[in-house]
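Board notes (copied after class):
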Amino acid sequence: MCHAFINDTSFYHFLYQVDLDIASKVQRQPCQYCDGVLHSARYPRKPRGPRHCLTEDYETRFSFCCAEEDCRRRTTPPSVRYLGRKVYLGVIIILITALNHGLSRSRRQQLFDQLEVNPQTFYRWLKWWREFFPATRCWQSARGLFLPPVNVVQLPGSLLGRFMGRDLQQRLCQFLQLLLPLSSTFCPGYIRVAIDPQKM
């Protein structure tokens, strides 16, 4: 199931469409520094992982530059595809680490080989989830929505299991939406994550 999902091109297209919608909303707003107009200034990305499933849309990340000569500051919208500066897609980082306890050693190695993930990177991700993520403002403001509390030692699997979408795709989308503030230093109020605590 995981193998088929990772190779699902329609899901990656859907994530691109979500990012496009977020970027369009950001561009309609004035520059956060001087109220100038924002012009497109995408920058290149070469995400690692399921490259054969990704279109050329994944070769750049949405970003904008202020048109005012005295400003020219960059505004990069939040993204459900890219988790900050990490070179792997956010969904891959979630999936590989969330499945840590449910995969045999050989199956895990197959995924590592397929996605070009080395063990050191994998353990660095686990450390990020269990030491850095719980201390972020993003999680500090969201953790109260989950009752009983999420087991931090088993992140991110313990958190992915709390979302109640009809399938893995919906649960991952909810998870990626929660992580939006970590994907960029620019996260306007309208992108606040809308999570219904009654459905957790």
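Comment from the instructor: Strands lie at 38-40, 43-44, 60-61, 64-66, 74-75. Residues 190-200 have pLDDT under 50 and may be disordered.
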